[in-house]
Amino acid sequence: SEYLGFIFRRGHEQQAGNKLIHFLLRDSNIRWRQLRLTHVPAHGATATVLQACLPGGQQPFRVDRAATSWNIELARSWDEFLDSIGSKRRGKLRRALRELDHNQFEFHEVSCEPEIDTAWDDLRRLHQARWERQGRPGCFASRRFTEFHGELLRSLWRRGSLLLTSLRRGGQAVAASYSLRHRGRVYFYQGGIDPDAMQFRPGHCLRVCELRRAIERGDLVFDFLSGDEDYKVQWATHQTEMLQFIVAGRGILPRVRFGFASAKRWAKESVRSRLPAQTWATLSRWKRQLAERGRSAAQKSTSRSTQSADISSV
């Protein structure tokens, strides 16, 4: 989940939070080295309770900025929504609608359970095609990931929480989207675009269709979840800051480890503040590429080991 926190009954957040934090820090007999609470909305009940309770405890702690979640606040009608955004963004949306007609795109949303399998296959195919074209493994390269979501689809559908949409041209999907819906909020989770149709901007056109459809349903927010990808920043009208709370466990060793980790983070932030933004972005990109190469090599090694095991068993 992108938004984490303690589950409190409304009106009892402070009282229950005080008891819970006191138990974790003082009364619990469980020995733990570090308490790490991630993806906590900065202005939610959990963050408020933690920021009020932790300073009074004996354990060292720190609060880090974890990520930013981006979302679009919708309106009661499409025209009202267009009036609520800036002229530049409004012009882009209207241009996308013209491109829909010009390129003969057709918007499709799964409306019955038998359509799920076809839509799911389109999403996986398009997602993998785009990432593999860039020489990188897509998320559906993981069998565990694919099987996990595949098992959830029908359960989510029957609860009214599943949204599978696509943009089609000549009966063939050129863009697909997988989202979750709960209490008037649409959470965009994963997408796929035909790499041979990028010049027609099918992903952009599909997003406009999804926004218009969400407004027709009466949804209130279209949520891109966390991550600072360019398209999220460009689309969003609002953002939610996410925090990470880290508390050192009881005892000398946990506190020493916490101190070293905090010093390392301080040094990193100091270097970052002195480097030009472009230089830091380049270094971060190199780090991600090295990590991806390492994961790719590990996956290939695992695949070879599995194949060898299969051959040996035969």
Protein described:
The chain has 314 residues and is of the alpha+beta class. Helices cover 52% and strands 22% of the residues. It has helices at 13-27, 45-53, 78-84, 87-102, 116-133, 143-158, 202-217, 230-235, 252-274, 277-313; strands spanning 34-41, 61-73, 106-109, 162-169, 172-182, 185-193, 221-226, 238-248. It has an eight-stranded mixed sheet with strand order 1-8-2-7-6-5-4-3, sandwiched between helices. It is globular and about 65 Å long.
What are the SSEs and their pairings?
Layout: H1 13-27, E1 34-41, H2 45-53, E2 61-73, H3 78-84, H4 87-102, E3 106-109, H5 116-133, H6 143-158, E4 162-169, E5 172-182, E6 185-193, H7 202-217, E7 221-226, H8 230-235, E8 238-248, H9 252-274, H10 277-313
Parallel strand pairs: 6-7
Antiparallel strand pairs: 1-8, 2-7, 2-8, 3-4, 4-5, 5-6
